[in-house]
UniProtKB/TrEMBL annotation:
Signal peptide: none annotated. It comes from Micromonospora musae. InterPro entries: 26kDa_periplasmic_antigen, SIMPL/DUF541. This is DUF541 domain-containing protein. It comes from the Bacteria. It holds the Pfam family SIMPL.
Length: 213
């Protein structure tokens, strides 16, 4: 319990910074009347993606195999299986954006491959989040002092500080369905999407007795 006047303010901060990571998804698919043939083709195509990614070496920070799906296609109104569909997705993360477009296109050249992305983001432990939180607290303190000054008083103590959250940036998406093509290789220049980070806090400050009038 606080005796005396209290000022409650909201502190905010906003930063727009370059992304630190880019992720894209590589999905290979297969379809055949026979389940075994579908699985064989899917495994071969997934292996081809692995070989292509292995060849990129240090250009890739991280890669993870995600969703594997195998499902039957049935004739309408019956349970008779007429074909089998399979897909497997690998997510690739890179931090060097200089050759990102070229890397994505090289992977998309493989048979029955779909590329989705890139999704731009900051690292989970990016110092930007800490900087924005500190700036939001500084803004709250500045506002509290301004209100106190307008009342002829001064801030004497922090009563309560609540973090209302850090707004993480949205991530853009594009898709490219690849496959073997003749002629020279295409070029793709990608512009990294700036990342907007916003933080807000609510603070309550005890102030000295106002001088009114």
């Amino acid at each position: 319990m606080v005796d005396g006047p209290v000022v409650t303010v909201r502190g905010e901060a906003y930063r727009e910074v370059p992304p630190e990571l880019a992720r894209f998804a590589v999905t290979v698919t297969a379809r055949d009347r026979e389940r075994e043939a579908t699985l064989t083709r899917l495994a071969e195509r997934a292996a081809a993606v692995r070989v292509r990614l292995d060849g990129e070496g240090a250009a890739i920070d991280r890669r993870e195999t995600g969703e594997l799906r195998v499902r039957p296609e049935t004739r309408r109104g019956t349970e008779r299986v007429v074909a089998w569909h399979g897909s497997v997705t690998t997510t690739v993360t890179v931090s060097d954006f200089t050759a990102l477009g070229e890397l994505m296109l090289r992977v998309a050249e493989l048979d029955q491959v779909e590329i989705a992305g890139p999704w731009w983001s900051l690292r989970p432990d990016s110092p930007t989040y800490r900087e924005v939180r500190h700036a939001a607290i500084a803004d709250a303190l500045a506002r509290g002092r301004e209100y106190a000054e307008a009342l002829g008083a001064r801030v004497t103590a922090l009563v309560e500080l609540a973090d209302t959250g850090v707004e993480r940036p949205m991530m853009a998406r594009m898709a490219y369905a690849g496959g073997p093509e003749g002629g020279g290789g295409p070029e793709l220049d990608l512009d990294p999407q700036p990342q907007s980070v916003q933080a807000a806090v609510q603070a309550r400050f005890a102030i000295s007795e106002p001088v009114l009038g």
